[in-house]
Amino acid sequence: MKTLKENQNWSAGLGTYIQNQEATPRPKIGDDDGITNRTMNLLIILFTLLTVGVSVASATANDDVKYRILLRQAMLDIDRMDYDKAIVKLLEVRSNTGENANVNHLLGKCYLYGEVSAEKAVFYLNRASAEATAEYEDWDLDETRAPLETLYLLAKAYESTEHYDMAADFYAQFLESMEGGKVKASSRTYAIISQNATNCRIAAANQASSDEQVGIVQNAKVQ
């Protein structure tokens, strides 16, 4: 059993220990563990950014898959000549993945043969025609160019809107692209398209003559 003196010594030692603790409080996290508060804050921010980045990347990947599927379905709709169904899908793909010549070409084709809006067909096919190429890969979901067929479709669309001079030009461009290709200049297909171009040039000339006559009549009435 401890004596009174020993208890007093122990109490005095405990008091000194408590005083020392109050004078030098325990370090906070980041004070003496080699990481400053500033560094800790930067690590927290970095971790947050990485977490958000992973989430965004995951969402983007999911969207990419979604719109690739929609594009594939639209292509199948076109193959079945369900043009109106394809338009809905293609418009969603176009508005969410950015513009490319392949989607514009497909939309133009659908508006020409499906909903029958030649004006819309002209709009989309015109945007696609600059990237029309013989190297176009059919059914390739990563293809962003347009096929040479775009020139022919654009000619038909212009013909439907009675822009015969533009129609004749694009028929001629399509014929030029066919030379040396799968369709020979001596073939029936080539002859039909060539005749379309000729008919459009005649129609354009008649149209210009008619407009000129109307102008003369109007001027005569004014005088």
What would you note in describing this structure?
The protein has eight helices and two strands. It is mostly helical and 223 residues long. Among the domains are: 55-148, Serine Threonine Protein Phosphatase 5, Tetratricopeptide repeat, CATH 1.25.40; 162-223. The protein has a two-stranded parallel ribbon with strand order 1-2. Helix 3 (83-97) runs antiparallel to helix 4 (101-113) and helix 7 (164-178) packs antiparallel against helix 8. The radius of gyration is 38 Å and the shape is elongated. It starts with a helix and ends with a helix. Residues 1-8 and 24-32 have low confidence and may be disordered.
What's the topology here?
Layout: H1 4-23, H2 37-79, H3 83-97, H4 101-113, H5 118-129, E1 132-133, E2 146-147, H6 149-160, H7 164-178, H8 188-222
Parallel strand pairs: 1-2
In a nutshell, what does this entry contain?
The protein has 223 residues and is mainly α. It has helices spanning 4-23, 37-79, 83-97, 101-113, 118-129, 149-160, 164-178, 188-222; strands at residues 132-133, 146-147.
Low-confidence parts lasting 5 or more residues at pLDDT below 50? 1-8, 24-32
Topology, number of strands: 2
Q: What Rg, in angstroms, do the CA atoms define?
A: 38 Å
Structural class of the helices, strands and pairings? mainly alpha
| Mean pLDDT over the residues | 80
What is the CATH architecture term of the domain at 55-148? Alpha Horseshoe
Count of helical regions: 8
CATH class of the domain at 55-148: Mainly Alpha
Hey, roughly how much beta strand do the residues contain? Answer: under 5%
What is the terminal separation in angstroms? 137 Å
SSE topology string: HHHHHEEHHH
> Remind me, CATH topology of the domain at 55-148?
Serine Threonine Protein Phosphatase 5, Tetratricopeptide repeat
Sequence of strands across the biggest β-sheet: 1-2
Largest sheet: 2 strands, parallel
Shape call: elongated
Helix content: over 70%
